[in-house]
Write a structure and sequence with these properties.
With 582 residues, this protein is an alpha/beta fold. The protein is built from 17 helices and 24 strands. The protein is globular, with a radius of gyration of 25 Å. It binds 6-O-phosphono-alpha-D-glucopyranose. The site of 6-O-phosphono-alpha-D-glucopyranose (G6P) has 15 residues, from α8.
Length: 582
């Protein structure tokens, strides 16, 4: 979703903001805008396009301003246009606002602002006009902000600059916002990576927080009158992880990082995993919830738990409400989220009555602060929009939770070590060239089918999602055991079918033979070759971790297909990494 970074301090804000916004582009990127101070006036520059092109167009780097705010927009209300890009201003252009979220009652508010001149189709624009209205009646800025905070409905965090005011104001209302304490000034941003190069001292803001900051000082007041403490955290993330390093894209870098991350599980402190397993063992029922790739991990987790005799079910974030009447106090919820900010999950958190375990990658995120037990995904910063290493680490953690729950943790650790010994075989030139050859064949296809049975089907779901996300090719996953009940009708001569084979059992091959008999061209990812495969990528077997190499190959196939189609897989069109609005 939208990304915000603001700075006020003794230094020139512009280089910080230029650098910072690049690390927020993953949130959304259809337009960019900024507000800076020039000779006492607020100057607003904005346009459609990516950050770099708008920055160049308006030569923004040439400015000097001790305060400023930058914004990347992911359109929710109003088309992608220059007028709808942020900042939005009041009638006189003296109050500028950047915003992340959705103001659900914006239309009613707009009607009430009779006489104000609106120039955009956005919900955001009501904020500067509401402030203008309040200030014109003699309210102080803080009083006006409180009134706006009370009036707007829905998750909506925003930052305000006002002509002639040395203060900047940030309000956290649902959507993420953090405060960074720099050496010579203060940052307010949607996410820590945007200012990590300059400071790792962070305050995680709470809902209702109003931050008033200027060159010299910062103060936080809670508009909901909550008395939560604001500790300063020292974030332990290396700024080096924000760069692509030797890789062409973050997605490729993050796929490759998985070997190292998997190895690090050999020395992982599993105490929280053990605690989660014991809660799960005594649960009435376990609900695993997530969205996108996190939902696929949830589905996998539910399957392995059921196979251990535990009543477990996976639910998509938006479906939680439909299940809520079934929830009981002794249920356990496993909430999976890379960002920890996914709106569907946050909205439904209160409905989850039992013990809530979060498997979350982002420290300080809303979900990480509002569950009963947090298990850190330990995937490090993931910048590509498509989840890769966060998905993998979640799957490993779920497998370990399951193994502690069913008493097989030693054997699982043995499998993990075996996997780590053999994983190099995936990254050798012969395998990579086979994957690139497959990508070349797929790149002009209109439809790709992913098939598998049991675990293989769930891996197929993720494989198909990756393909859709980054290559824009229609890819769909089917369970091989049910293919005869409809999907087989889609197969014709030359249909490309990727088979994710975890266990080479007979039933799997019956289904594949049926596809082949109808002309399907079968690309097998499997620990052993078969005559049914037209093409074959060999993956090592690794007991309960056999999903790992299959997932890596599927990720690489999607990545190379996207690149061969000339798409930047790091920033797929229309998608955002953190979905902070419903
Ligand atoms: C979006 C992203 C997906 C991600 C999903 C869940 O849809 O594009 O890649 O899997 O959100 O995000 P979360 O941060 O909750 O894991």
């Amino acid at each position: 979703m939208c990304g915000i970074i603001a700075y006020s301090g003794k230094d020139n804000a512009v280089p910080y903001l230029v650098d910072g916004i690049k690390n927020l582009e993953y949130r959304g990127y259809d337009s960019f805008g900024c507000a800076l101070i020039d000779k006492g006036n607020i100057i607003v520059r904005k346009d459609v396009g990516d950050t770099a092109s708008v920055l160049n167009k308006y030569r923004i780097i040439k400015n000097f301003s001790n305060q400023g705010m930058f914004h990347t927009r992911w359109a929710t209300h109003g088309g992608i246009s220059k007028e709808n890009a942020h900042p939005l201003t009041d009638c006189k252009g003296e109050i500028a606002v950047v915003h992340n979220g959705i103001i659900e009652n914006w239309q009613d508010i707009k009607v009430s602002l009779d006489g104000h001149r609106f120039v955009s189709q956005t919900d955001t624009e009501v904020i500067p006009h509401l402030l203008e209205e309040r200030l014109s009646r003699g309210d102080s800025m803080e009083r006006a902000l409180r009134a706006v905070f009370n009036e707007i409905k829905g998750a909506s965090s925003f930052v305000v600059m006002r002509k002639g005011d040395s203060n900047m104001y940030a309000v956290k209302h649902g959507a993420p916002l953090v405060l960074g304490l720099g050496k010579n000034g203060f940052f307010v941003s949607s996410d820590i990576p945007s200012f990590l190069k300059y400071t790792n001292k962070v305050v995680f803001l709470h809902d209702g927080d109003l931050v008033v900051f200027n060159q010299n000082s910062v103060r936080i007041k809670n508009l909901l009158n909550k008395k939560d403490k604001h500790d300063v955290h020292t974030v332990d993330i290396s700024p080096g992880s924000l760069d692509k390093g030797k890789y062409r894209h973050f997605m490729l870098k993050e796929i490759n990082e998985q070997s190292k991350l998997l190895k690090s599980f050999e020395n992982y402190d599993f105490s929280k995993v053990r605690l989660a397993a014991s809660k799960i063992r005594s649960a009435h029922r376990v609900y695993l919830v997530g969205a996108g790739s996190s939902f696929h991990a949830a589905a996998y987790g539910a399957l392995i738990l059921r196979k251990s005799g535990i009543d477990a079910i996976a639910i998509q974030g938006q479906d939680i409400q439909n299940f809520s009447r079934l929830f009981e106090r002794n249920d356990v919820f496993v909430i999976i989220s890379q960002s920890g900010e996914t709106a569907d999950l946050i909205r439904s958190l209160q409905l989850m009555k039992g013990f809530r375990i979060g498997i979350i990658n982002t420290e300080g995120s809303y979900l990480s602060r509002n569950v009963d037990l947090v298990i850190n995904m330990m995937a490090g910063i993931e910048k590509a929009v498509a989840a890769t290493k966060s998905f993998m680490n979640t799957m490993v953690l779920l497998e370990m939770i399951n193994s502690y729950a069913n008493g097989s943790s030693e054997s699982a650790m043995h499998d993990l070590k075996l996997l780590n010994l053999n994983l190099y075989s995936l990254f050798v030139p012969s395998v990579l060239s086979a994957i690139k050859r497959i990508a070349e064949e797929l790149k002009d296809d209109g439809d790709i089918f992913y098939v598998g049975r049991d675990y293989g089907y769930l891996i197929s779901l993720e494989g198909a999602l990756k393909m859709k996300e980054v290559s824009y090719i229609h890819a769909e996953a089917f369970d091989l055991s049910t293919i005869k009940h409809g999907p087989l009708a889609l197969i014709s001569q030359g249909s490309k079918v990727i088979a994710a084979v975890t266990e080479p059992v007979e039933e799997t091959f019956y289904g594949l033979e049926e596809i082949k008999a109808r002309g399907g061209h079968i690309i097998g990812i499997s620990p052993s070759n078969s005559t049914v495969f037209d093409e074959f990528v060999h993956v090592p077997e690794a007991g309960v971790f056999s999903f790992v190499p299959l997932v890596i190959v599927a990720q690489l196939i999607s990545y190379y297909t996207a690149v061969k189609r000339g798409i930047n897989p790091d920033k797929p069109r229309n998608l955002a990494k953190s979905v902070t609005v419903n």
